[in-house]
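Newbie here. two chains, one complex. Structure please?
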Amino acid sequence: MRHLELQARPWRERDADACIAWRPPTDSAAGWVSVSAWRQRIGAWQALLARHTDARGAWLLFDSDPLEFSAALVAIWERGEQAILPADDQPATLAALRDSGQPLGTLAGGLRAGADRDPAWSNRPLPAVAVTLYTSGSTGEPQRLDKRFAQLDAELATQRALWPYTEDLVIAQVSHQHIYGLLFLILRPLAEGVPFATRPCPYPETLHAWLAACAGARLQAALVSAPPALSRLPATLDWPTVRHAQGRIYSSGAPLSRAASDLAQALLGSPVHEVYGSSETGGIAWRVQQQGESWRTFPGLTIRSDAEQRLWLRSPHLADPQSWQRQADRIVLDPDGGFRLLGRADRIVKIGGKRLSLTAMDRALGELEGVRRAQTVTLNRRELRLGAIVELDPAHVPHDHASHRATVKRLRRDLARRFETPALPRYWRFVETWPTNAQGKLSATLRERLFADLDDRRAPRWLGERAVADGIEVTLEVPEHCRYVDGHFDAQPVVPGVTLVHWAMQLARRLFALEADFAGLERLRFPQPLLPGDRFRLTLSRGRVKARESLMITCESARGQHASGRLMLTESHDVA
Amino acid sequence: MTTTALEHELKEMIIETLELEDVTPADIDPDEPLFVEGLGLDSIDALELGLALQKRYGITLESDAESSRQHFANLRSLAALVEARRVS
């Protein structure tokens, strides 16, 4: 198939009987969609736009159906008007863009095209800006990115030169509202004349069924994917019977782990081509991890790094192809001309492939009721997840499991107005006083201590400590899934007294640099047990009884006292 | 296995698999939505949960994304799915 630049309007040039799209077997009308049928949808959108046009000459386009989306986009281009693509359909994102243009498609208040119509081609020039992308509201103020046709065509040519679509169709597991999905699922197929699937394919079972249909029809499909989907392919599905239908696999949005890359290749039978880039820069580099960890710059681009290891880029995919632009990512150059990524220099992270500004999240959290101060941190769990350290007004501090859950629910619900669900903090640490080290900083050590119980099922949840008259008072919570918590399904689980003694000894070792060992209890009472989720204060003070060292402990929660008494210690020189 | 016991097992699987540190089985109302407004699970969790069901019960979900994810609406529908399709 002949490659046509977008500026050559391939939607007009293609043979009417050629296929523009493929309806997957899970659709009621499975099969091919012809260019002529698609042109009828362009005509339908043209009729709609003609009725609703206003002085702005700009349209806010969000449509989950790639066929309708592409028809609407072409209809806008044919009018010489501006297509604005919101990154998501969250109310806050749309509210920020409300005045920029008339909403179209499957977003709240969006206009939808009606019955099929013949398209009308005029000699109006294409708009100066092909698409305007906005970073989502989750990265602070939505940032506007204009892409001209020359930039998009340069990028399409780069990819076509490296990896021409030799497959029969293209399947995507990512959104075409973002630059990567837009290029690989909509614009490349349009320029290269390869059909795209008319529905997104987010789940592995769906992918398996579509590949099975392709295998049955002797078709091969390219896959436009991303780390969340590729790192969760179930080995239990019968991939060997469908994998000869799998063409090239692409992944972008975040680096894929080596293990996930290996697994995807083993199951799908094709190596994963990772693309590194951003909405601002377009594609920068690529790699196939089985050939090496380092990234190779796309042909036609030049990169360098500066004293701060920041990446500098000169690229035909940028608005100004001649100038050097400094990026937020840090890199290290390899002797072979490739580079490795070291992470970002700012507080932008990617969660579930979506960009998120931790600064914006901290600010949003800090504005919620009862919150005095907040800081989010990234935690490498099975996926990158957020933890939140939140200083609350005393009246809002939760004291037990139920109030902790209620507080988390309230804060997450409030944040959900602005952020997508995967971006919401999952691990919460509510403090009464902002935890700081001797230099007044919430240091990395303190941040680790706040979340240490996630990796140590025997540890209490640490929430701060302060000096009191005769010792040190530590604020703790009983983790709900603490290994020491007794009790089963039907019984109320409780924290055994011996666990409190153990925690007190561990804390004393750190706080008092104690070397002595536990030697016995003296007048230690446990008036009532602690329950999972209870917030409590454990006060420790050192003392001497005759010649022996001892540790006084008291433990209190909002429900009253849980322990008080004395732990006798061995003389430190007794310890061999 | 009674339904209640299966529901409890599924609650523990969800908590363990998705590392929900402050959620106990009692917090999961079998009729409350698991996603977004209820328990607050998200699209990554949905993939993770699908994987766990396949590993633990040998369940293969439908290829039709919409109908297969309807089973994930709440704990009761999830238990019904496991009951009907588990490979024992």
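Moderator note: Chain B touches chain A at residues 8, 15, 19-25, 27, 35-37, 40-44, 46-48, 50-51, 54-55, 58, 60-65, 68-69 (CB under 8 Å). Chain B has four helices and no strands. Thread marked as resolved.
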